User: What shape does this take?
Amino acid sequence: MTTLVADPAEAAPAPRAAGRGRLVLTRLLAARGAVAGAVLVLLLFVLAFGGPYLTPWDYATPDFTALHQPPSAQHWFGTNGIGQDVFAQVVRGLQKSLVIGLLVALFSTVLASLVGACAGYFGGWADRALMFVVDLLLVFPSFLIITIVSPRLKSTGWIAFVLLLAVFNWMITARVVRSMTISLREREFVRAARFMGVRPLRIISRHILPNVASFLIIDATIAVGGAVMSETALSYFGFGVKPPDVSLGTLLAAGTSEAPVFPWLFYFPAGLLVLFVLAVNLIGDGLRDALDPTAGGGRPRRNSRRKKP
Amino acid sequence: MTTTVDTPLLAVRDLRVDFAGPLGPVPAVRGVDLTLRRGETLGIVGESGSGKSVTALSVLGLLPRTASVRGSVQLDGRELVGLPGRELAAIRGRRVAMVFQDPLSAFTPVYRIGDQIAEAVRVHQQVDKAAARRRAAELLDLVGIPAPERALDSFPHEFSGGMRQRAMIAMAVANEPDILLADEPTTALDVTIQAQVLDVLRTAQRETGAALVLVSHDLGVIAGTADRVAVMYAGRVVETAGVDELFAAPRHPYTLGLIGAVPRLDGRGGPLVPIPGSPAPMAELPPGCPFAARCPLAEQRCSTVEPELSGSDGHLAACVRSAELAERRPAPAEVYPVPEVPPAAVTGDRDSRARVLAVSGLGKTFPLLKGTVFKRRIGEVYAVDGVDLDLREGETLGLVGESGSGKSTTLFELLNLAAPETGRIELLGHDTATLTRAEAHRLRARLQIVFQDPMASLDPRMPVGDIVAEPLHAQHADRAEIARRVPELLRQVGLDPDHATRYPHQFSGGQRQRISIARALAVRPKLLVLDEPVSALDVSIQAGVLNLLQSLKAELGLSYLFVSHDLSVIRHLADRVSVMYLGRTVEQGEVSAVFDRPRHPYTRALLSAVPLPDPAAERARDRILLAGDPPSPTQRHTGCPFRARCPVYARLAEPGARARCEQEKPALAGDGHQAACHFPG
Assistant: This one.
């Protein structure tokens, strides 16, 4: 067949067994958007956990000399109605929201892809049982259940909170993954793997999930923003983030009504949330392109797309 | 071109078609000249992407809006390019009619066949509904559809593929057009049905006196039908001549290569001659002759200027060395390098060799279910109903049959490694009914499969190295072994080991099929199941893959179970052949015996339906046309299931002999060369 004159300098030092993991990583690192997104998330973490040391103010302690003050040298992001420093509150809130947003998206996507792929791939009784659980969770009023179980979980802290949010957030994704899996299962490459004696769980992890990855990644990036916002609603039940503790969600909820008069109460937390979601989206886009070999290397190298061996 | 007294019916001059691409226009047709005279059949042959269909479609102005068409298409002296849609519509169907490749999508599924044909009549003729309907019935009768009055009220899905294609032809000739454009009219059909449809096309042409433009990738179809042939490559006509001339003395190396690359049913023509490389993408054609990179006769000047179509006495070729080829008349193998096939690793008498696969009386039924909430069984499909196979070490067994004959079901029954519904499967000495899970897993390593469509059978999201390593992982090979084996395998199938990090979409069709073969060979199997491995490939690529399979078999001592609907490929590759009809084995034996002296009437019909890429031989053959379509497998037939279409049964005069066919199911009889027929030839 055609012979490609490989550049010896390029080909020789590269290890032979560059598997998919390494290829995807190389492509991911070559995508500027993904790297920028990762740097942005990293910076947000630095701000969230380093921020409290930059300001003398505490997120809870009020400064009675400055009520509803706009941003100044003293209070960088201004103060709220009872004189709490908005910068201190925002960085404190960011700590919570970063962790909650990322973990909820991660847990719910992993759960959804596993349940959906298993239900779709195995079919039969496994499918019926798993879909029964999914439908059950879909019809259950999730807030009611959270209200009932929350008093018992109060002592366990934020990780239980993350899990609860994730548990009520994966069902629709799972249904979509299931139907995608059912159509993938009939594709020849999955059949080929089965005839080669590849085990079912390995087929799911090596063939099914990479082929639904584009959808999963988009879904996960949307879930990040969604989790931060739904955590606000849960705070009404006195569960999760409780005053005087704050999160970006509670800050936004409190600041929305005052936004026209005291814009700094709303726009600083909102801006950080937008930055956070944007960064996650950039990473997601990069990851999607890196996993999809037809996407052209993640970098806008236009002619590489048409390159033929 | 040749000068004629009258103006040609259709004259295409310097036709150029570009499609809008993301990086600017991509050419599809780059200056095509064609002339069609009244009543003549012009064959346009070329591989996928050569621009043959686009040329045909642009005559009728049927290209999508993203295409820009330049040049001239004249019908009886009237320019068609740039004609407004309203005026083109008056020509479409009236003067120029089209027969499409896929008749299922060419009919509207919600209207009856009769109404659709009557509509075609009424669009161009001032007749009332009843007259149009009568005309439609006449047309259906013309194309040989039984009970045309009843067929008028059928919906398209009630017709079989062959019937739909006939109805499509009936619709095309409804207004007695001057030109029939047939774009791959038989590609989706089985050979026996293809022979019927080609026959109908000839009848329709004779009845209406229309000129026919037949677009096909199949040299055999072209050889048997066309008067003149145009060979297209990379959007241009590279050679055009009368059909006999072209096949006897091709003047372009590409045509020569195409002829050498086609396996022949009559077993003549020697080893297959693959054309090296694959066509350059149309978006980035090199300067000079587009075929130069693949051409064994290329010279310095070929890569600078693209040669013009030139020549004498109606035989034109676009090659600087066409005169030399015309004079020397070399065989394909003299021009193209022919790969050496190493001597077989397994030798010795057939009976002394180990039995790799033994199948007897295999049966498989699928339930026919009805109802949405409560499914109830309303019948059964007898997909496989008595298959016997016998495959020895180092042997290739060809499994032949038309679609619906149960070939694929048979394969999947073998690959399931479970107890079959009925019958017995013995694989490498193990009865599949008694296998434990661990044994079945071990056995998987010794039995591998290559699928038909290499794009579908390779995971698009996995680099080639991982794809090839997958069966090794499945058999728990260690990392060092895998790292060593993958480059070795890629080299073995003729790919560059450095390409292991590429993804399947970066390879051409033939290369993908090679990857598929490399994956199958990874665990050093004894038996390779090949499910139509070359039917998705172009002829010139197919030859390379077939040669590879042949040399791998000799080198590694493999056994192949080769499933194909293409008898020429089987003849070329297989040692023994097994013919299936309606889920049953009807004939089996040595390839030479079965192909030269077929005993079952079905095999005889099948063989006679395969077109030969040799016009003289094709005309000299007498053809056995089978009537009708294969019957439905949902009923179990008493007696011989082939009876309804059997020419031998139809000729039987004696009532006793007829009764035997009607009541007694014939068993495979004979030794070595077996046939399941009461009256074998």
Remarks:
- DSSP finds twelve helices and no strands in chain A.
